[in-house]
Amino acid sequence: MATLMSVVALAVAGCAHDVRDTGVTAQPSPTPGPEEVASGAFIAFASGEPDDVPWADRVTYSISGVKIRTFTPGAGVAEALEGCLPGTKQVEGRDCPVSPLITVAESGTPSVEGHPPRRVGCNTFVTPEVSSALSTTVIRPPDDDRDCFSDFAVTLYLNDADDVEWIDLALSGP
Hints:
Structural class: alpha+beta
CATH architecture: Roll
CATH class: Alpha Beta
Radius of gyration: 23 Å
Strand order of the largest sheet: 2-1-10-9-8-5
Helix content: 10-25%
Largest sheet: 6 strands, mixed
Number of strands: 10
CATH topology: Nuclear Transport Factor 2, Chain: A
Strand content: 25-35%
Order of helices and strands: HHEEHEEHEEEEEE
Distance between the termini: 72 Å
């Protein structure tokens, strides 16, 4: 038995020694793409962390493809991202103003997708007319919360400098 333990100890020591001597190093984590950077920063901002979202000089906010306003990012971003469709007091059963920041913050652990969905809950997704956007990233609720009453899509449209130039909030409701 003592001989077996000696062999195991030598084998373990030899393995540890071999790994160090081979020069094998851990591979670095892949650098996140601009979409992951933007969506991660937006989720963090919605959760109360500092605003590190890569904003364009001018940002447009829309609800279900309908332009609400264009603003210059700065100290009032959270307020600029509140609104309602013209002439309404509710959006899909939610009292106005609605905000993509609040929607994401209240979603628990959102997921991130690369392309706008065809449907948000029971509604067809309406893509805003964003002609200059080169890429998109979409923040959605967890799969278990994608029903006709609680589904949403916060779509971030990035320009050629990888800055968020348009945010669209799509909500599903009764």
